[in-house]
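Consider the tokenized backbone below.
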């Protein structure tokens, strides 16, 4: 895998993205990726100093043991070492015992301010990285949990700003999935959305369906967290066209549809953006979802795609801090490290769950990733 950060070869990427309208991966988005990638590099340098890692040689297990970090810290340190290698701050990863090189210190607040000035609409993406970086030493030391820091009431607005179409670094996940949904359904579709959060994916879907003159007849907006459900429901209510029935309800992908009063209902499409990878066992969750689809129904997922089974995702720290994200089951051929799945993992999980046809948008995802290792964004369409 090539190193980060590097300039994104825009014209070569454009040539590969023939099945996606230009506005989805705009130049502003590409610029925001370069800014976020460079900022993550500064976060890593900051951590090298905060955690006194310069010159450390050894495995993540060695570090966890020698510093007395919690067992929960191992996945975090693995991520850290892999990213230090990805950014060229550690050598010999293949020997599983990298040596952290000397790197100049960094003023994280000044770096953050510069990054925001360069890409103002990526502020939420940058702020989430900064927050996760600042708390990592305390989480490793067992002084605080990721959940306490990231999900405190005072951070709720940051998450709404992060999972938003105003966040230029996140918005393509929604627009791409919305585009795939829109291409996959006809007018008057009955749509079930999972993990709808504050409603940013629903917002993109409603806009795409309206632009394509395919108003749905039923939109069931679901979410597991009550605060998100309330917020998302309010937004979706304003966006759906007249004549479309809206239902809002809690729904947990870890439970069966029967347990949640949804059995016996058929949908033309199930839509979820960055949700299904959260299932502890994606095959079980996907099998359950399949029972909710009408015979010609389609599952449309927007997902951050891991470059390969073993690759780190350089913007993954905020999620890895959460025990719930780390606890997701690793399964042969599906998931080798917690959290996001790679494209082959999704293909295998969907097939194991009984889906016969699986397509990715963009269809050239592998080539995009070879050009730019931070090209994580894809929609998955399964029947
Ligand atoms: C990454 S966010 C995606 C936000 C949302 N799709 C949007 O468009 O803004 C993941 C969402 O999945 C929800 N979630 C987490 N665990 C879940 C579960 N077991 N079942 C359903 N949703 C879940 C979270 O509450 C959160 O809103």
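A designed sequence for it:
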């Amino acid at each position: 895998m090539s190193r980060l950060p590097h300039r994104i070869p825009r014209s070569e990427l454009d040539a590969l993205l023939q099945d996606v309208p230009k506005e989805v991966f705009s130049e502003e988005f590409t610029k925001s990726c370069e800014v976020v990638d460079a900022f993550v590099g500064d976060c890593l340098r900051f951590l090298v100093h905060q955690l006194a890692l310069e010159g450390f040689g050894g495995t993540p297990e060695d570090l966890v043991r020698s510093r007395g970090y919690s067992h929960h810290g191992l996945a975090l340190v693995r991520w850290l070492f892999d990213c230090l290698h990805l950014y060229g701050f550690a050598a010999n990863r293949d020997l599983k015992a990298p040596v952290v090189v000397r790197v100049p210190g960094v003023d994280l607040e000044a770096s953050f301010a510069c990054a925001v000035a360069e890409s103002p609409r990526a502020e939420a993406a940058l702020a989430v990285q900064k927050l996760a970086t600042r708390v990592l030493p305390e989480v490793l030391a067992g002084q605080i949990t990721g959940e306490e820091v990231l999900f405190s009431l005072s951070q709720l607005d940051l998450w709404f700003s992060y999972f938003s179409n105003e966040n230029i670094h996140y918005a393509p996940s929604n627009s791409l999935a919305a585009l795939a949904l829109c291409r996959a359904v006809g007018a008057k579709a009955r749509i079930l959305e999972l993990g709808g959060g504050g409603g940013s994916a629903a917002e993109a879907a409603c806009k795409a369906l309206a632009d394509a003159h395919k108003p749905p007849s039923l939109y069931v907006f679901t979410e597991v967290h009550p605060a998100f459900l309330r917020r998302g429901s309010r937004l979706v209510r304003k966006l759906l066209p007249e004549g479309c029935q809206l239902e809002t309800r809690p729904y947990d992908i870890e439970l069966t549809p029967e347990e949640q009063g949804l059995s016996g209902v058929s949908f033309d499409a199930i839509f979820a953006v960055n949700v299904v990878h959260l299932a502890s066992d994606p095959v079980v969750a996907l099998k359950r979802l399949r029972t909710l689809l009408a015979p010609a129904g389609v599952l449309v997922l927007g997902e951050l795609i891991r470059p390969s089974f073993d690759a780190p995702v350089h913007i993954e720290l905020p999620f890895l801090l959460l025990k719930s994200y780390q606890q997701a089951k690793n399964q042969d051929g599906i998931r080798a490290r917690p959290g996001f799945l790679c494209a082959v993992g999704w293909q295998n999980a969907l097939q194991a769950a009984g889906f016969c046809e699986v397509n990715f948008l963009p269809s050239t995802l592998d080539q995009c990733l070879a050009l730019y290792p931070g090209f994580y964004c894809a929609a998955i369409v399964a029947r």
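The mean pLDDT is 95.
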